[in-house]
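Good morning,

Both structures are done.
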Amino acid sequence: MPDALSFAVMKKRLPVLLLLVFAFPLFAADEVARLHALFDKEWETRLRESPLFATSVGRHEYDDRLPSATPADLERQHAQRKDALAELLRIDRSKLPAMEMENYDIFRSQLEDAIAEHEFGDEQMPINADSGFHTDFSRLPKDVPLATVKDYENYIARLNAWPRYVREQIALMRTGLKRGMTVPRATLIGYEGTMATHVVDDATKSVFWEPFAAFPASVPASEHDRLRAAGRAAVTNGAIAGYREFLDFFTKEYFPGARATLAASELPNGSAYYKLKIREFTTLDLAPEAIHKIGLGEVDRITREMHVVMQKAGFQGDFAAFLRFLRTDPRFYAKTPDELLQYASWVAKRIDGKLPSEFKTLPRLPYTVEPVPADIAPKYTTGRYVGSPQGSTMPGIYWVNTYKLDSRPLYNLEALTLHEAVPGHHLQISLSRELENLPNFRRFSYISAFGEGWGLYSEWLGKEMGFYTDPYSDFGRLSYEMWRACRLVVDTGIHSMGWTRQQAIDYMATRTALPLHEVETEIDRYISWPGQALAYKLGELKIKELRKRAEQALGTRFDRREFHDVVLGSGAVPLNVLEANVDRWIAAQRRP
C-alpha cells in the first residue's frame, strides 16, 4: 500500500497519465509510463544520497543528515547511475511524444555527464577559487527549516556530522594530491580565510550559533535550555572542529602540494576532461580553438562599440586612459557598504517596475538584496544570485559584494542587477521551479549555458527596457559584455593553449573597465573552474540568434513578451532544445 506522499503524487499525476493514454497509442503510453517511473526512482535516489539538496527542494525526510563521500559510497552511486542509464536506453525513444523525447534527452545527458565526471575523478576537487563544499555548509543556518523542536534537533545532528563529512572530503582531496587532480596553487592564495573565519574560540561567535541566540515562538520555552546546551556542543565539537580540521589540512598539505600548473589539460587525461567540461557547461560540441575564435570576434566587435560610448562621454584621451579614469575617479565608488547596497536596491526596484512590459509571466517569489558573506567576500565574485529553499519562508537573494569598495564601481550595477536579480537569474530560476508540468529533475536543474546565457541576454535587454542612459553606465554594460567575451578567449587560452595567469589578467585588464582586484579574482575562478566561464557568451549568442530569427520570420507579428515566455517556459534546457522550442513557436505563429 503506498504511503500518504506516494498516494498524493499518484492522485496529482492521474489526469496526466490518463491524458497520455488517450492522446497516444497504448505502446507510447507504456513507454512514457516507464520513463516517468525511472525519473521518479532516480529522483528519490538523488534525494536520499544528497540530503542537503533534498532540503533545498522542499523534501525534509533527510534533514538530520549530511551526504556520504566515501569511495565506497561514490562507487555505489556511480553504479546506480550506470544502471539508470542502461534502463533509460532500454526505453524506445522513437515511441515517445516530442515533450517526452526532450525529457529523455536531457536526462540522458545529465546521467552521462555525471558518469564521466566520476570516471575523471571530479570529486577529488570539491573546491574552487571562490567556493566549495565548506562555503556551502556555512549557509546551513539560513538554508534549513528552524521552526520546531525537531527542526533544531535535525540542525544539531547535521552540525555533529560535519567533522565526518570534512574527513571524507579530505580523503578525496588527498587522493587528488597523489594523482595531480588538484586546484592550481596560484589560485588559492588567501583561500584559507574561507575556513579560518569559522574557527572561533567561542561558540556564540560562530555563524552556526545564530539559531540558538533567539528561538521562534513555535519552539516551547521549556526546550530552550536543552537545545541551547546541545547546540553549543554541536557548534564547538561539530562545526568549529570540522573547519579547524579542514584548515589544518589545507594549510599543511593541500596548498603546499597543489599543482603548480594551471591548465585543465595538465590534469590526468586533461584534454579529454576539458572537452567534457566544455560540453557540460555549454551543451555544445565545440573545440577550444573554435570557441577561442568566436571570443576574438566578439572582443573586436565590442571594442568598437566601447570607443563610440567613450566618445559620447566626452573623454579626452586614449582607451587606456579612460579605463584608468573609470578605475580611480571617486565619483564612481560608494563610500560605505550601505551606500552600495542602497544603490543596488534602488536599481533593482526600478527594474521591477519595467518587468510587466517585457514578460507575460512573472514568478510569485520575491527577492531581496544582501551583502556577500564576509567569510567568502575577499575571493568572491562581484555579485551572485542565491535561490530560496523550496517551500521555505526565504526569498531569493541578490548578493552584492561590499568587500574592497574601491573595486565595486557603481557604473556596473545596472548590468549586474539585470543579470543576477531580474530579469536574470531570480526571474528565470523562480519561474522554472513553478513549472508543474516538468519532471522534478528538470524543475531543479541548472544548465549553465541556458541560465548564464539568459543572464547576459538580460543585461543586453536592459537597453531596450530604458536603462544605461548615462554613458558611463552604458560603458559598464559593454565592459560586462566584454568581460564575458574575454572569457571565451582566456578560458580556452589557459586550459588548452598554454596561457599564463598574468597573460590572462593582462588580456582582460586592458579590454574591460573591471577593477584590477576583480580581474584577478575572476581569472583565478576560470583557472580553478574549467569551462564554466564559457557558458555566458555562448548561451547569450544563441538566445540573440533565435530572437533575430523570430523577428525576421514574424515581422510585425513578433511579440517580445511572447518570445520571452517561450524561452523561459520549459525551464533550463540545452541550447539545441531551446532552438527547437523557438522554431516550433515561430512555425505556430506563422500559421493563418
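Second structure follows.
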Amino acid sequence: MHDFEHRLQDVLGNAYQVERELPLGGLGRLFLATEVASGRQVAVQALPPDLAGRLDTGRLRAAVDRVARLKHPGVIPLIAAGAKDDIVYCVWPHPHGESLRDRLVRDGGLASDEAQQVLHDVADALAHGHAQGVCHGDLRPDTIYLAGSRATIAEFGVRSALNAALGAEGGMDERADLHALAVAGQQMLAGRGGPVAEVVARALSIDPAEQYPSAAALRDALGAPPSARRRRRRAQLAALGVLALLGGLVMWQHLRGRPPLIKNLIAVAPFEILDPEHAVWREGMVTVLSANLDGAGPLHAVSPTMVVRRWEGAADAASAAALGRATGASLVLFGRVVRAGGDTMRLTASLLDVQLGTSVAELQLADPDSRLDRLADSLTMRVLRELGRSRPIAAVSRTSLGASSLPALRAFLEGEQHFRRSEWDSALAGYQRAIELDSTFALALYRAGVAVGWVRNASDSLSNAYLERAAAHNHGLPQRDSMLLVAESLSAALADESEPDFWRHYRRLYATTAEAAHRYPHDPEVWYEYGDVRYHNDAFSNEREMREAFDRAITLDSAFAPAFLHPIELALGAGDAVAARRYISLYLDLHSSDVYADAVRLTRRLLDPRLARAPETEAILDTASVDLLLATQSSFRGWADTLDTWVRIATLLVDGPPHRPRPPAEAAAYANNMRTALAYRGRLREAWRRTGERTPWLFAAMAWVGGTDPDSTMRILAASLRSDAISPRAPAVLASPLWAERGDAAALATLERRADSTARAARRPDERAFAHGIVEATRALEALVRGDTTAAVRGLEAMPDTVCLRCVVHKLELARLLDARHMDADAAQLLAHDSPGFVQPTDAFWELYRARLAVRRGDRAAALRAYRFVRDVWRHADDNLQPYVREAREYTAGTSERD
C-alpha cells in the first residue's frame, strides 16, 4: 500500500478497508474498498489535498447532507463523506456494470432505443436532484454507469458540494447538467438521426429560448423509454413466463441444454455400501466428503441434497458422468465400501473427469469398520493430493464436520438423510441425538434449529436457542455450511428490534446470503436461504427478488420441497392464482407427508371455487388441528380473494368449530392474527371490537385507515406520549402522523422534545440514531401542520428506512401527500417499493396511490392491476372505505370495456 493509501486508511479508520486504486477520469483519486460492517464493496473518492485548507467545513457538511438525502433508483447514493488533515473523501457503493465511457470506447455508440433509455434515466435522476437543490456538476460518460438496460449516475453532487464549501457556487447550475447530458447523448448517437437526435439537438441549442427549461422537460420530451413500452408486453407474458419456468422444470435440461461443466466443481456420488449395518454412510460419504472438499483451493462441491436427488444407477463411470452433466460438475468422485474380512472395511474410489471421460485417480484405502469417518478424511487428502497436480490446492486438514465423536457424527448423518426429504420430525430426532453426544456440535445445533423452525415456527424460542449455540461454536466448519449457519443465527438474532446490533446484524445477514449465492450459484439450498432471509426480513428487498430466488432454487432442484412454500404465498399475494396452483402441483408431486403438505392440499381445495364451500371442505376445516390451520392461512395472508379466506381461517383459529369452541386462553393466542386479517380486508369496526392487547403497529395502521374510535385513539396517543419511552413500540411514535392530520402542533412539539432528549441521553448508537430519526420525522409533520407541504414532503422523504421498521404510517402519509399534489416523480420513486410492512391493513391504500399514479402516467395495465386489488380486498369493507372501492370498480369496469 502506497503512502497516500496508508494516510487515507488512517482517515477512514475501521469503517472501510482500502483494497486498491481505480482509474478516475474526474476529480482526485478513486479507490476500491470494503465496508467492514456489511462486507459490500464501495468506491472511495479522495479529493485533491490542496482543497482541504480552503474548505468551509460547515458549508461542506450542509452540502453533503443535501446530496445524501437524494433517493432515486438512478442515483448511486452517497454513503459517507468527511475531511481530515489534507484529505477530503466521499464514499459510494461500488457501481455495477460498465461506465458509458467504456461502452463508447468499445462500441463507438449505442443503438437509438438504448440511447433513449439512458438519456431518460439520467434526465429523471437529474430532475430528482434538481428538485432538491442539488446539481451534479460533473456529469460525463465516466460518471454514467450502464447495468442491464438501465443507467445510474455516480458522484452526484460532489463538485457542487465542493464549490459550496469553497464559496464558488455561482458556477454550478441546472443548465450545465442538461448541456452535459446532451453532449453525452450526442456521443451515444454518433451522428444518427431520428426523434432522439432531435431532442438532443434542441438541448444543445445556443438559443436559451430553444433549450429545455428543466431536466423533467427534457425527460418528457424523450417520450416513454423502451422499458416502459415493453412493460405491457411483460405483464401479458408474466403468467406464461412463470408457467414456462415452473412447468418446464422436467424438460429444462433438454430444452436449454445441460449446464456447462465447471472446471473446479466436484460432485461426490452416493457410495455403494453393501453392509446394512453401515448403510448410513451411503449418503454419509456424500455429506462428509463434500464438506471436506468444498473450499479447498478453487474447489466447490455440489450440495449433497442436489447430488442425492440427481443420482441414478450404480457406482460406475457411466452413472458418474451422468451426474456430472446433470449438476455441471466437471469432476465426480464415486466408489464403494466393502468388508475385507474381520472388522476391516476397504474403500475403493474413482475420480472422473467428465469432460474427457477419463479417470483422474483410482484410490484404495482400508480401516476398521469403527472408523469410517477416518476413511473419509483419508480419502479427502488423497483426492486433494491428486487434484493439486493441476490446481493450486494447499494442504487441507479437516475433522468430520466438527463432530467430536463417531456416534455423534453418525446420528447427525441420519438426521441429514431425513432433512433432505423434508421429514422434519425424524431429522430433528437425529440432530438431538447428536447434540446429546456432543453438545458443541455446531452443524447439528444449526440443523436442529432449522428443523424446530419447520416443526413449530421460525421464531420458536427453542429454535433460536439452538441457533445461538451453533453460532458460538462456528469454528473451522466447511465454508458453505458456515455461511448458512451464520445466516440462520443472524435471523434468530433479529427477533428483537431493540437489540443494540439489530441493523448491523440485518446488513450482515443480507451480505452473508448474497456472498453465499455468489460463491455457490448452483446450490439450491443457498438460493432458498437467500430468498427465505429476504422473505422474513424484507426491509431491503422486494417480493420480486424473493420469488426469483425461490424459482432459482426450484430450477436447480425441483425436488427441494421447502422452496415451493413461500412462492405459493407470494404468488397469491401478487394476485397470480395460476402461478400459485402451479407451485402447488409441483410441490404435491413430491409426495411430502408433513403438516405443510396437508396445508398445501387444503390450500388447493380452498383455491377451487367449486370446492371452497363444499361440505367436505367444511368438514376438513372443522376437524383441522391448529398447526394445520396456521400453516394453511399463511398462503392467504396477502391474497385479495373474494371469499375472505384468511379471515375465514383466522376466525376458526380464535372461535374454533361450532361443535368445539376454542378455550379463551387458547383463543387469545390467535386474537391478534384475527384482528390483522379483519383489518387487512377493511372490516375495521369488527377488528376494533375484538378485545385483548392492541399491538401498537396494528393500532397505528388501523387508526390511519380510519378503523378506530377517534376519541379512544387520541386518548391512547396522549397516554403513550406521557408514559411510554421513545421507542419503535410506542403508539405515540408509530401513529404520530395522526396528530398532523388533526393539526395538533402541541402534541408534535412534545414528541419532538422527548425524542430530542432521548437522543441526547442515549448511550447506544442505535438508540441515538432512532431518536434523531424521530426528531426529523416529527419536524416534517410540524411543517405539515404549518401548511408547509414542501418541507413536510422533503422531511418525510429523508426519513431513513432503517429508523423504524414499523413506522408504516409515515410512509403512507408521504404517499398521500404526493398523490394529492400530483408529485408524480417522487410518488413513482416511493411507490416502486413494495408496501411497507409486507402485509398491512394499509396495503390497499398503497395500491390505490399506485393506481392513481398509473392512470396519470397512462399505464392502464398497472392501473388495472392495482385497482383490482383495491376492489377485491375491500369488497366487504366498512362504509368509510367504500368510496375507494367504487373508484376502483368504475375504473376496472371502464377499462375492461375499452380493452
